[in-house]
Amino acid sequence: MSEPEDEVEKSSAPLIEHLMELRTRLMWSIGGFFIAFLGCFFVAKHLFNLLVVPFKWAVEWAHMDVKKVELIYTAPQEFFFTQVKLAMFGGLVIAFPLIAAQIYKFVAPGLYKNERSAFLPFLIASPILFTMGAALVYFFFTPMVMWFFLSMQQAGGEGQVQISLLPKVSEYLSLIMTLIFSFGLVFQLPVVTSLMVRVGLLTAQGLKDKRKWAIVLAFIVAAVLTPPDPISQISLAVPTILLYEVSIWTARLIERRRDEDRIAREKKEEAAAATGQSA
């Protein structure tokens, strides 16, 4: 076999190994998601009842004289597909740690030791921040939004028709899923900016200088991701701005630690050089 053909054989072997490794990681991720999906589908009604709790709180806040909260579906298959969508949503949330771990295991061999140690904290912080955003939606944001929508009802009477809010199961699920994903993604802002600061794409001073643009962008993003009412938009924009300030503070800590490490390394090199000269 000629020398060029030997080089082709040597270069193809690592590629095949990487593809096999990628297949293994994908199988673990898909398998974990599928098992979580099946588990969530069997308890989909209980999960949906859990998601309706914020709506019940809003009804209580509105002091409505109702014995039970009622949602409807207008197509025979609507509630079934709503349960499927809910199971996929729950399966993705439950399987995310496994999927993230598989991504890390696939990428980690190509990283240096210090890069792996720097990347791992962000991998842990990401689901924690997403959970914080989802908790904010569940315990505060959704009840407030539903209370706002309930306040627009009409009791009916002389010269007025009765207008009542009867949410569809699919539309209610789409609303709360959109809110959870929106807040969850926004809460990743410190993670994303910290990673960009570590690789040198951003600086704390640069983030500080662009604060005005960030505030404007926060309200634009809130207007796109949330329902078209001012309460929803402000409730997303304000945490986004606060998270941007947290990102600036985190960037300063990263730069300070980087400078301290650089100074310590320079002192160590100077000490080693002085020791060599004296010897």
Distance between the termini: 54 Å
- The total count of helices amounts to 10
Number of strands: 0
Subunit organisation of the chains: single chain
Percent of residues in helical segments?
over 70%
* Class based on secondary structure composition and strand pairing: mainly alpha
List the uncertain runs: 4-12
Strand content bin: under 5%
The largest β sheet comes out as: none
Order of helices and strands: HHHHHHHHHH
Shape: flat
Radius of gyration: 26 Å
**Mean pLDDT, nearest integer?**
82
Q: Layout of helices and strands, plus pairs?
A:
Blueprint (H helix, E strand, L loop, with lengths): L2 H40 L1 H8 L1 H9 L16 H30 L5 H38 L18 H18 L2 H10 L5 H6 L1 H15 L4 H49 L1
Question: Which short descriptors sum up this protein?
Answer:
279 residues, mainly alpha, 10 helices, 0% strand
Question: What can you see in these coordinates?
Answer:
With 279 residues, the protein is an all-alpha fold. The chain has helices at 3-42, 44-51, 53-61, 78-107, 113-150, 169-186, 189-198, 204-209, 211-225, 230-278. Helix content is 80%, strand content 0%. It starts with a helix and ends with a helix. The model is unreliable at 4-12 (pLDDT under 50).
